[in-house]
Amino acid sequence: MAILSKEEAKKILEKVVNFSKADGCSLTLNGADRGNIRYARNSVSTAGEDSNVTLGVQSYFGKKSGAATINEFDDAALEKTVRRAEELAQLAPENSEFMEPLPQQTYLGESKTFSEATAKITPEYRAQAAADSINPAVPKDVTAAGYLQDSRGFSSILNSKGLFAYNKQTSVDFTVTMRTNDGTGSGWAARDLNDISKLNASETSKIAIDKALMSREAKAIEPGKYTVILEPSAGGDLVRLMLNMNARQADEGRSWLSKKGGGTKLGEKIVDERVNIYSDPWNDEVPASPWSGDGQVRKKMDLFKGGVISNLFYDRYWATQKNVAPNPFPGNAIMDGGTTSLEDMIKDTKRGVLVTRFWYIRPVDPQTLLYTGLTRDGTFFIENGKIKHPIKNFRFNESPIIMLNNLEALGKQVRCVTSEGGPGGGGGLLIPYMKIRDFTFSSLSDAV
Amino acid sequence: MKRRDFIYLTGMGAAATMLPSIPVMGHRIHPEEALRTVDVSLKKQMSDVVLNAARSKGATYADVRIGRYLQQFVVTREDKVENIVNTESFGMGIRVIAHGGWGFAATDKLDNDSIARTAEMAVAIAKENSKLLTEPVRLAPQKGYGEVSWKAPIEKNSFEVPIKEKVDLLLGVNDAAMKGGADYVNSILFMVNEQKYFASTDGSYIDQDIHRLWPIFFLTKVDKASGKFETRNSLSAPMGMGYEYLYARPQDKIQGTTTLYKGRYDMLEDAKAAGVQVSEKMKAKSVEAGKYDLVLDPSNLWLTIHESVGHPTELDRVLGYEANYAGTSFLTLDKWESRKFNFGSKLVNIVADKTQAGSLGAVGYDDEGVKCGQWDIIKDGILVNYQVIRDQAHILGLPASQGCCYADNWSSVQFQRMSNISLQPGKDKKSVDDLIKGVEKGIYIVGDGSFSIDQQRYNFQFGGQLFYEIKNGKIVNMLKDVAYQSNSQEFWNSCVAIADERDYRLGGSFFDGKGQPGQVSAVSHGSTTSRFNGVNVINTSGKIG
Question: What is the ipTM of this complex?
Fold first, then answer.
């Protein structure tokens, strides 16, 4: 029952809303079938599937609200859940920031987030993908470790003011790490997709194998400021850190978006004028739901245009305080690319570093958006236009704001997987290859 | 077959950016429902159904975990309650060995038919997985304990404390912080109760009741004119305790440069101090980068122990099972086999202990029915052992598992997770003042902050909450913009002094992440204040826009 159709979901939600005796309620009905396979040491370690449909009820009396959830769908269970949410609402303290649910909205069309091919993935498909990944590793004296997870599901909301929205989506996340058996080389490759037919586990794995073999016996070079060429995963891992553009924190003075003397940096040019980042739910590569979790309409929205901060995200409460229209958190982010190929980026570099990915990225100073982290699984020294040799990994301390002020060139866009959070930190990320000058590497790491 | 409901807490404002994503597992319930329990005889009956079904389908080993996982979160900011969440997750996970391979299946439908079917499914999966095996699972022998139980030694069940009392505490904390000088404050109480029943074909039936609690706050002071802000987080530790952790007692306070807490936590007092200290931080001197002798309080050192000792001594990482996610380890088997690998200075003794009272990792038995104990990891500076589970013990030639197996829910498969890993107190009588006295140029660091370490656990960088400059044996003023960078082995070899047991305290992680799909676990790390010579310190300040 994990994927309910629009009509089936609406029927259940309408039944539930009729049980309500509160001032009002908001309902969510979400479900997914998920599967995964994990392998390490050239052998499958775990594999599984799960299936889940959950109804959430948030009831309110005035400014007091309570929530309850259930995964049983007989009438008695549904009514019990509504009563429980109402009891909890009566117990709750008043929240002066509580917002009543929205009336019906007009959404801008059906999303592109669902793929029939992904919805049909079987355990055999996953086992074959793992085999396709492991098999090319063995003859190269390389050990494979990887993870494939897929999901097919739906999301729907309905409230007592008449709003109803429905979306169905599929996702695939594939990551693979190849390590040479002598322990001196490591490579990584990954794909984040809605449509499984775009996945070639064997080819993706071969990229990781090549990186592992190329990265053997890395040499140490001095830490310092380097020109870097960031593959999209590495660049995406830093760009995504700029995208939590919360207006309230900026207005309160506790964000990198806060302005000296009060107010926010909205409208200010903050990075290189070639930086254009926007959200678009209908993008073919990184499609997103056309509505946000609370039912707001998602539209195409500029985040940075010509290097200028174009929008901040206002939740509905904060928008009333600031007399602006609410602006929901977007479901994806797309950074415009350029025409420079990776080969040309390398050719035009006198002395630089090619970075496959970053790892263990953590905030250091929220005022400057300074983050630290390390390179991993394929870091190479470029000299006089050529990749010279693999180098030992570096720790960086850098702000994506400074990084995007030091932009040299932009290349092809790729949908990327971030290093710890899977796909795009909650939404798809389409990020170009980037060449950056004066990127700060502060120390060396012996890690392979 | 596997059911999990993750609800992510939202609306926590600034606090959300400082925490990992918080997995709230299970369904939301009325707070009073948390107080009912499930009859042990019923759990034994269900377990026997499962074990018999698994054996009859060809399992050579089977275990069953019947888990009821309760969570309560109270989330506030300034004078508002933002969220109160109560959840319950109840179900059964079944793990078997058949044809030499592992299989796992889980269900929340606990009638006899459903659990027997789930057992059959686990056996079928094991048989399927065995086709891809290079060698069969070798399980260390484990005697059955019969019917036994273990309860965390708590004094006050957090779930019995009325929500109003918790809300009043947090709003009081927020008020104290604001009066002290903060402009914004978020405060949260996390409470967890795991009611776990384990049974296996070895003949164990183990009933356990585990409690954990984590009070935290994050406060911010803003200077709009300069556009600068500073933060100060609570100096609390997450604990394997009941609500008594929040009933402050004078004997649990350590008076010094700032008040520190052991065993009990005075959240209100810490919030008042934090309000004042965050204003001091605004005016503090920015650190000059360079080499310093560091005197690290346990509220800071726990995280360094966690990342640089706890993770690299997990045997599954050493073997490569986490290569695609968390990474591997620099502590390879040859270093252990040599019995000469100089992990730290001779003063450094690090012990794994799953029995430590009040710790997050304390249990009577692990999630594969092994009675827990303690063992040396680093002895007089030398690597002597790892953390292992039953199917890894043979790799080290150990006769039995060390009891490091854990699953974060009934629906998750159990695997090797970190034990409590703690630095032992110094043997010579030394106070924190004694440690500071000998330092010519140093920094005393309190509280945990930013943290990052590479995938083999060599290179790390840590921040903190409060930094005090030490000059010629005395604390002279507050510093800011401090982070220390080192290499694990170099760092532990630079350890020149460890305060004695009077200063011993626990810190810990409530949501330590590992595995794919990801699982969380909670683990404590004890230490006394310790001194490390000549550590590289960087200045983290900068300018944008």
Answer: 0.94
pLDDT value for B377: 98
Shortest distance, CA A81 to any CA of chain B (angstroms):
9
Please indicate whether, in this complex, the C-beta atoms of B222 and A45 are within 8 angstroms of each other: no
Question: pLDDT value at position B337?
Answer: 97
Domains of chain B: 6-215 (3.30.2290.10), 286-539 (no CATH)
Residue B24, pLDDT score:
53
Judged by CB atoms closer than 8 Å, whether chains meet at A393 and B81 is answered as no
| Span A6-213 CATH architecture | 2-Layer Sandwich (3.30)
Q: Does A128 touch chain B (CB under 8 A)?
A: no
Subunit contact A36:B3, Cβ cutoff 8 A:
no
Closest CA to A358 of A160, A162, A188, A103: A188
Q: Cβ–Cβ of A95/B229 closer than 8 Å?
A: no
Contact residues on chain B for A372, CB-CB shorter than 8 A: 450, 452, 461, 483
Low-confidence residues in chain A, pLDDT < 50: 422-426
Q: Flag if A50 and B80 touch (Cβ within 8 Å).
A: no
Mutate to test the interface with B, among A186, A367, A406, A418 (most CBs of B within 10 A): A367
Q: What is the pLDDT of residue A44?
A: 87
The model's pLDDT over A341-379, given as tens digits with 9 standing for 90+, comes to 999 999 999 999 999 999 999 999 999 999 999 999 999
In angstroms, the CA A95 to CA A257 distance is: 27
If DSSP codes are grouped into helix, strand and coil, which group holds residue B234? coil
Tens digits of per-residue pLDDT, B1-51?
222 333 333 333 333 333 334 445 566 677 777 777 788 999 999 999 999
Closest CA of chain B from A171, distance in Å: 15
Chain pair A-B, CB pairs under 8 angstroms? 225
* Chain A residues with CB-CB distance to B80 below 8 A: 95-97
| B299-356: pLDDT as tens digits | 999 999 999 999 999 999 999 999 999 999 999 999 999 999 999 999 999 999 999 9
Q: What is the pLDDT of residues B133-173, one digit of tens each?
A: 778 999 999 999 999 999 999 999 999 999 899 999 999 99
CA distance B153 to B209: 9
pLDDT tens profile B351-394? 999 999 999 999 999 999 999 999 999 999 999 999 999 999 99
Residue numbers in B near A147 (CB within 8 A): 324-325, 516
**Domain assignments of chain A as residue spans, ordered by start:** 6-213, 218-243+267-311+330-448
